[in-house]
Amino acid sequence: MFDLRARGTTVRVEVLGGITTFVSMAYIIVVNPAILAFAGIPPGPSTVATILTAVFGTLLMGLYANRPIAVAPYMGENAFIAFGLAAFGITWQQRLGAVFLSGLVFLAITLFGVRTWLARAISPSMKHSFAAGIGLFLTFIGLYESGIVKSAQAVPVQLGDVRSAPVLLAIFGFLVIAVLTHRRVPGAILIGIAVTAVAGVLLGEGHAPSHVAALPFTGAYDLSSLAFQLDLNSVLRISFLPILLTLFLMSLLDTLGTLVGLGAAANLLDERGDLPDIEKPMLVDALTCVFSGLVGTSTSGAYIESSTGIREGARTGLASVVTAALFALSLFFIPLFEPMQSLRYAYAPALLIVGMLMLGAVAHIDFDDLTELVPAFATIVMMVFTYNIANGLTAGLMLYPLVKLLGRRARELHAGSIVLALLCALYYLFGLPH
Q1: Contacts with 166 (C-beta within 8 Å, 6 or more apart), sequence order
Q2: How far apart are CA 99 and CA 108, in angstroms?
Q3: pLDDT by residue (tens digit) across 285-333?
C-alpha cells in the first residue's frame, strides 16, 4: 500500500519517522489554542479542534497522497485570525466562516489547476518575502506576549520589565529552545515550552495540571460549542474580500513552499525541481482547510516540521499515519497540555523561535535586483509596521507588476501576477484596509 521497498525504507524507519515528526510539532496543541483564544475562541474546544484537524489532514496525507508529511493548523495563519483581524471587530464565528470559505476556494482552484498557475506567477523573491514578513510578525507578537516589549505613550513600544519573573522565564525558554534546536533534538519547541512551564510553576508563576487524562468531547472539551458554529452569511460580502484574499494567499504560498522543501529533503523532486503528483498533497491541504473551518480552528496545511521525520528516514505515508495516530492519542491527555496555554512566558518563546527560523527566508531575496527588492521590502515592512499581514501581502503584490513595468521589465511578468495585483487593488478600493 505504501510502496516501502520502492522508496528504500522499512516499517521500523517509517514508525520512527512518524514519532519524530509528532514530537517536533506537538507544540501546536499548546500554541494554537492559546493564540486563537485572543479571538474569543474557547481554549478547551479549540484544543480538541486543533488535534482533530491534525488527525484528519495527516491521516489523509498518508493514506491518499502517500507522503511523510504532517498537516495541522498553520502558525502565521492563526496569528492572522487572532490578531490581524482584531481591528475589523468581527466575531470568531465570522472568522471561522472566512476559514471555511477560503478552504472551498482552495479546493476549487486546486481541482481546476488554478492554484499551481497562480503560484508560478509569484517570483521566488516575493515568496521568500512573505515568509520573512510573517516571521517578523510572529516575532513581534512573541516579544509582546512575553513582556519583553510593551505598549507606551511617548513611543509606539518600549522595553518591558526585564527584571520580572515572566520576562526572565520567557528569555530562559527562548534560550532552551534555541539550544535544543541547534542540537537537532526532536521536539525542541515542545520540550522548551514544557521546561519553561515547569520552571514557572515552581516559581509560583503558574499551576500544575489538575489531572493527567480526560475524555474528549465532554465537559470543558465539548466540541459542540465550537464545531459548525461558523457564520457564512456575514462573510459573503465585499468587505470580507481582504480577509479571504489573505487566507487564500497565505495558504497558497505556505503549502507550495513547504511541499517543495520537504520533497527536496526526501529526494522526491523530479529533474525539473517539481514534486511529482503535487496535486494530491495540495488536495489534502484544501480539504483540511475546509475541515478546519467546520470543526472550529484556523487554516491548516503541510508542516515544515515534517522534515525532522524525513531526516530520520521517513519516505512514505506510513509515517504520516503514525503521526496521525499519536495526535489522536493526545486527545485523551489534553489536561497535560492545558496549563501551558495560559502561560504566555512558556509559549511566547515558541513564537520567537518560529519567527526567527522563518526570517531566514530573507537571504533568498534578490537584493541586487531592485524590481524584486522593492516589492519584497514593502511586503515585509508593511506586515510588521502596520501589524497586519494583509497589508504586506497586498502592497507587495500590487507593487510587483508596477515596478516591473516602470523598470522596463514587462516581459518578466506572468499573467497571474496581473490577476493577483488586481485582486489586491480590490482590497484598498472596496475592502477595509487598516
Answers
A1: 146, 147, 200, 205, 344, 345
A2: 14
A3: 999 999 999 999 998 988 877 887 887 788 999 999 999 999 999 999 8
- Cell of residue 63, nine digits: 493514506
Q: Give CA separation, 3 vs 7, 9, 11, 146, 320, in Å.
A: 7, 9, 11, 46, 14
Domain boundaries, the chain: 11-363
User: What is the C-alpha separation between 206 and 380, in angstroms, rounded?
Assistant: 36
| Secondary structure class of 364 (helix, strand, coil) | helix
CB atoms within 10 A of CB 250: 23
Query: What is the C-alpha to C-alpha distance for residues 217 and 223, in angstroms, rounded to an integer?
Result: 6
Question: Rounded CA gap, 9 and 2, in Å?
Answer: 10
- What is the total residue count of the chain? 434
Condensed to tens digits (0 to 9), the pLDDT of residues 18-46 reads 998 888 788 889 889 988 998 889 988 99
* 3-state per-residue secondary structure call for 276-319: CCCHHHHHHHHHHHHHHHHHCCCCEEECCCHHHHHHCCCCCHHH
| Residue ranges in 1-113 assigned as alpha helix (H) | 11-25, 28-36, 43-60, 77-79, 92-111
SS3 152: coil
CB atoms within 10 A of CB 104: 14
User: Which contiguous run of DSSP H or E holds residue 234?
Assistant: none
